[in-house]
Amino acid sequence: MPKVIHVIRKFEPAEWGGTETFLVNLVRELEPLGWMSEVHAPLEPGTDGTELERAGATFRTFRASYPVLGLDAEGRKRLVASGGNLVTPGELWRLTVDRRASLFHVHTTRRLGGVVRWAARRSGRPYAVTLHGPTRSGAAPGQAASFAGRGVDVGAPFGLLVGARRVVPDADLVFVLNPEERQAWEQDRRGRHLELVPHGVQTARSSREARDEARASVPGLGGAPFLVVLGRLDPMKGQDVAVRAFQLAPPAGRHLVLAGSETDAPFARAVRDLASSTPGLVHVIGGVTPRLARAFLAEAEIALVPSRAEAFGLVLLEAWAEGAPALFSSASGLKGIADACGAGRLLVDSLEPAEWSARLSAAVADPDLLASERAEAPGRVAERFSWRRVAERVAGAYEQALRGRES
Containing domain of residue 317, as a range? Predict the structure, then answer.
């Protein structure tokens, strides 16, 4: 049975997001298709591969550092959370000498992607890259550079050694999550394998127990109807837009819940400050488990997805799978889903809080619209977004890459 080693920049359940969801479901579905999976992630205080092991993968960790002079513990924590550019000579050596893998699959770029590139080229094996973030089309500025900017990053020689800037151009396979991203990379790929692979989604609905647990985790919510924004506290996710829109015209009797881990401390503080001006109605609750994340979507009256940038927008599919109506922005990944499904009636083509407030007020006042969305949304997901279908496309691309190396 062929084996793939997946390399990921972090795997911390307390900061669960789309990349973690993608990887867990991919390795689960690859096994019945004849592929063994091993996952490598940096060893950090919150690293825990239990979910990957339950999905059938072997989980291993490696030591990594952030080569920034003057970096304190808090700065390092922010770099881990927000996409810092790490170095790891140990993983470079491990991948190079490990002959058990047929192929490498890296889920990030930069220096860690370069480590995989270097090991693959030295050992004569193919490697794949999945671009989980909006790297070119609609890409938002990252926060990691501002954290590192307080010190001097001395990791450039390591990046040069491993070819960090050549990770995508030199890859045997590149997977992207939306059509705009594929178009943005076509010229660099020069006809080499560039595969559009959207996310899948689990269609099983949340249990009543999980929904009750989600409600109980929000002090003061009780049985009140609520709106939810699910995603890490980061400017790309647009929680500030949702809070300002809610505060312009708070829907009668409703609360707003923001669930997601902090990856940008200044932005998180700003959102909490905004929320504090509506005490008891806007709740910022931090990171939640995948089980409770789905339960919040199931229990919410409306999910809000005011993202400034999304490579795909898995949260929209998860909301639909739970039968939750969702107001969502026109960020490329979200719009791509809506266009594919013919489901754009709750798309908000603006990031202005006033426009979001108006659309939210109109949706709350239209029970027929919300009921129609609840009825139709699960079917959109079931028809188009199967994890088995995703895994079949990935496995087929793996096999094509292996044949290319053998020919």
Answer: 208-384
